[in-house]
Design goal:
With 484 residues, the protein is mostly helical. Helix 8 packs across helix 13.
Length: 484
Amino acid sequence: MRFSLLKLLDGLYLRDGCFCPSRFCFDPKGVHMASSAPRGLRSDHVVTVGIALFSMLFGAGNLIIPPLLALQAGSATPVAMLGFLIAAIGLPVMGFIAVALAGTARELAGRVHPKFGEFFVAAVYLAIGPCLAIPRTSSTAFEMLVPLLPEGVSLGTARLVFAVGFFVVAFVLTLRPGVITRVLGRITGPALIALIVLVVGAAVISPLGPAAAPQAPYDAGAAVQGFLTGYQTMDLLASLAFGIIIAETIHELGVTDDKRVAFEISRSGVIAGVLMAIIYCGLALAGMQLGTVMPDATNGAAILARSASMHFGLAGTVVVFAIFFLACMNVCIGLISCCSRYFCETYVIEGGAEASEEAMRRPFAILAFVFAAFSCVLSNVGLDVILMFSVPMLNALYPVAIVLVLMGLVHGFCDAHPQVWVWVGGVVAVQSVITSVRDAFFAGAWLPFDALPLADIGAAWAPVAVVAFVIGLLHSKFVAHSRS
C-alpha cells in the first residue's frame, strides 16, 4: 500500500499540519509518456510539485513556533530567523533530495546497518506521531480555546475533558476516512492561510508594540539558537518519512534519472521555500510586536490568540480557535492513520504493504486506538511541557538525520566507501543520544563531548561527524586493500 501524492492532494493530512487543496491535483496518468524520458518537468508541473512540497512543510503545529521565537529574540529576530529558516526549510528540501537520490528513509539509514535503519525510521515515526506531533495537535487547539474559557475554570480539568473529546473524535474519524476528512482538508488549508493573512496584515497595518531586547537564549548566538529552534518543526524528519511520495510523483511525470529528479526537487523547493519563508517571517513579525505586551509567554499558540484578540476582539479569538481546531483535528487524523499504517505494514501483518485491507483492518484499529490513547495522556501535560520534552528527543534525532541527508546527497562517494556510513551514522547517533539523555535527566552533568569545538552551541556532533568520516574513509581503504 504505497503512499500516493494523489491521496495527499485530495485533502488528506499526512503530517503535522500539511495540506494541499484538491484544486492543485493533477493526474500523472494524463501526462503523455514518450518513449524516452523528458529532460525535465514542465513549468506547470514544477509549480505543482512545489506546492506539494509546501503542503508538507506548512503545518498548523509549526505556525506556533515563529511567534515565540520572535517574541523571545526581540530585536535579534532577523538573525534568529535566518538560522530558523535554514533548519525549517533548507534541511527538509535537502531531505527530499537525499531520499530521491538514495531511496527511502529506511534504505538511506540502512546503509549504516539494516537494524539501524529499522530503528531510526521507527523513531522518526514515533516523533512525528504519538510522542510529539499528535499530542501537540490537541494541546495547540486547547491553547487557542483558553482565552474563551470562563474565569475560575480549572485548566487541568478543562484540558482533560477537551483532550478526551478531541481524541475520541479523531480516533472515530481515523477508522472512517471519507467525506468528512476530505472536506476538512479542503477547508482548513485555505482557512489557515486566510488567518495568517489577517494576523500578519493586522500586524503590519497596526503594530502592537516595538521589539523588545533579546531574551535568553537569543541574547547570545541568535542565529544558532534559531537553527536549533527549527528542529521543533520536525520537517526534516517528515521529509525523510514522506520524501518517497515526491520522488515517485516526479517519476510518474516522466523524469526517471535520479540526478534529474533531485534537480527538479531543488527547483520545486525554491517555490515551497519562498512561500514558507513569507509565512514564517510574517508570523515572526506578529510575535515580535508582543515582546513588551506578554514577555513571559511560553508558547506561540497563546501569542497568536492574544494577537488576534487585540486586533479583532472576541470574534477574532473565536475564529482563530475554530480554524486551529479543525486544522489540528485533521492533522491528528492523518498522523494517527499514517503511523498506524506504517507500524502495521512493518511489524504486525504478514505481507507488509501488499497485505489486503481486510487483513489490515483489525490491527490498524488497535494501533490507532493505542496511539490516540497514548497521545491523549501525553497531551494533558500541556503544550509547554510537550515543547520542552521535544527538545532532547529532537536533539537526539536531528543530528543523525542531518548527517544521513548530507551523505545521501553524495551517496555515490559514500557507497564507494561503505564504512563511512557505519562510522558517521553510528558515532553521531551514540553522541547525540548520550548528550540528549544527559540534557533531559542530568542537566549540568559534564560529558567528554562538552570539551569538543561547537559544544557550547549544541553542535558537538559536527566535529564528531568529521572525525568519524575520516576514520570511515581510512577503514574503507584498509578493507579494500586487504581484499585486494
